[in-house]
Amino acid sequence: MMLIESKQSSLTIENSERPILSRLLLPLIIAVTALLSACVGGSSSTAKDPIDTTPISSGSSDSTDNSSNNDSVNGEVSRANILLGGVEYQPILDELALPTYWAATSEPSEEMLSVLNTQLAPLSDTFSSQFTLESFALGLKLDPLQSQAYKIDISTSELGQSRVILTLVAVPQDGVLTQPLATAIYIALRQAHQAEGGLLGKLVNHGLALHFIESELKPAHLYQETELTGTALDDAITQAKSAIKNETDNGTGDDAWFNGAEPKDNGVAWKLGYYLVAQHFVRYPGSDAANSFALDPGLFRINLASPITVNHKNEQYVRTGDVANQVGISELTRQASDYIGAYFLEGWNQDKLIALTFDDGPSIYTTQILDLLAQYQIPASFFWMGKNMQSNQAIMARALAEGHTLANHSWNHPHGRSLTSEDLWQTQILKTNELFQSSVGITPRFYRPPYGEITGKQVAFLDDKGIKVILWSVDTRDWNSPLVTVENISDVMINNQHPEVISLMHDAGGNRQNTVDALPGVIDYYHTQGYRFVNLEIMLGISDKR
Fold first, then answer.
1. Residues near 381 by beta carbon (within 8 Å), at least 6 away in sequence
2. Which residues pair with 139 in a beta bridge?
3. Which of 48, 141, 472, 514 has CA atoms 20 to 30 A from the CA of 82?
4. What is the largest CA-CA distance in the chain?
5. Catalytic residue (one of 409, 506, 507, 544)
């Protein structure tokens, strides 16, 4: 039996009523509304102090320690025991994709297991379809003497691990836990990707969680009120901006909104958070609560402006013309128009941003490119092939650690239109994403089809799986290395300047030294024009990982 130590620094959500009679259901929901938000405030400790010192055992087939393996039997996953907060937990409900454990000091009754399975199954299906859960654990325990119907504690760590512990006083009533527990799980997963977020981070966490529940679980009613309009909205925005400024200047500023990590009873924090996130979805086509979960809260700050202005482009298109024997730019523009939010040639907004993107790596040229990006302190995005990743995992780890977007460029660069949607997914995209996950612990959300070849059905198929198709607005033609010089690459980039550029370059597939040598001049030029270099996550307002 493999025990995995976890130092837990938790935040607690408590419900003040005991579930004795069914008539107490409404008070339960009302009580937890005010108290649930304690699952938010751990972002500051997450950034500074590692809470979990050892990752959850994934039980992968290549593990050298058989005692930690999770065996799959009839589609179910058998998990190892773990330690949470110094308490041993044993796996239960192996049929759920959501890793679920019960405190080993007692055994759950058959009734408890049946009720938990019924209530957790929808959450398991929802979260496993949207997120990677390999570093997540839900621990449950029974405490008949506690004064609350239930408590929800969450902890996260800078190792990217998430824990939620649910303490019950009795078998939970139907529906009582769904929304509060969904909020806790969502925020625990989100905080594992976030540094200290302060007041803005807390607002965004709550708002995203509510939108996720609304869009994915589709309840008849949200368990928190969300309407905030007119003078009340203006006052809340003014107060939030002042508090955030005070927080920046003096280190404090959220007292009017939160008691520590807990929103105050007036509900304004929930409402403003919901509003800020809704405005984000308007600004960034294709964004939603599932694919925005890992975004830095700073990206939502613009939504505190009053009034908010959104100025989208009329269309997206490639500036550099057709290439012989490749998909015509008119077809690329048509696809971008037909699949708004699922297929991108450039950013939709009018900001002076540029996203440098590189295809086909990793390779020896990737290291040179990373050195230059580090020298200039700018991020970029890399679309890599699975077959090249196997022997370059140190490069992958470095690129991720330095803040670059890592994305999928198929396994072996096929002509994708010749494949069915399912074959494309299984043999090219999923296979590569699984290698990303096993190598560096992320599952990319962005895919670039080789040669720009993809059918509309494939775009829609991938969008249903949470994958966004990313092409380019400027093709440097650096793939034609015998003919395209450093000067050619620089000229193409400089002569096709426009808001929210997505450039196409390559870090493998041939001699890419000209690409490397052209970068300093391109970077210097765009800096003089007032552009900011960003990764695709920032430009598109969509998380680049699951």
1. 355, 356, 357, 358, 404, 405, 406, 407, 446, 535, 536, 544
2. 101, 165
3. 48
4. 79
5. 506
Q: Which residues pair with 155 in a beta bridge?
A: 163
**What would the pLDDT profile of 139-152 be if each residue is shown by its tens digit?**
999 999 998 899 99
Residue corresponding to tokens 């380019």: 472
Query: Residue 120 is encoded by which pair of tokens?
Result: 């957790």
Q: Tell how many helices (H) and how many strands (E) occur in the chain.
A: 17, 20
Residue 80, SS3 per DSSP: coil
Nearest to 409 by CA among 447, 466, 380, 444: 447
CA distance 275 to 272: 5
pLDDT for 56 equals: 43
Asked whether the predicted pLDDT for residue 245 surpasses 70, the reply is: yes
Q: Residue 75: is its pLDDT beyond 70? A: no
Residue 413 backbone class (left: φ over 0; alpha: ψ -120 to 50; beta: rest): left
- The answer to whether 415 is a known catalytic residue is no
Task: Give the closest residue to 295 by CA, choosing from 445, 182, 109, 418.
Answer: 445
Q: Which residues pair with 343 in a beta bridge?
A: 469
Global pTM? 0.86
Tens digit of each residue's pLDDT (9 = 90 or more) over 285-323: 999 999 999 999 999 999 998 777 899 999 999 999 999
Per-residue pLDDT, averaged over 250-275, amounts to 81
User: What is the amino acid identity at position 107?
Assistant: E
- The torsion angles phi and psi of 470, rounded to 5 degrees, stand at -120, 120
From 545, 465, 434, select the one nearest 60 (Cα to Cα). Answer: 434
60 C-beta neighbours (distance < 10 Å), count = 12
Tokens of 270: 């929930």
- 359 part of the active site: yes
* Per-residue pLDDT at 1: 31
Pairing of strands 87-91, 100-103: antiparallel
CB-based contacts of 331, cutoff 8 Å, min separation 6: none
Whether pLDDT at 3 is above 60: no
Q: Catalytic one among 254, 359, 478, 507?
A: 359
Provide the 3-class DSSP secondary structure of residue 139: strand
Q: What are the tens digits of pLDDT across the range 214-236?
A: 999 999 999 999 999 999 999 99
Quote the mean pLDDT of the chain.
Answer: 86
Question: How far is CA 273 from each of CA 278, 293, 461, 480, rounded to the nearest angstrom?
Answer: 9, 14, 31, 48
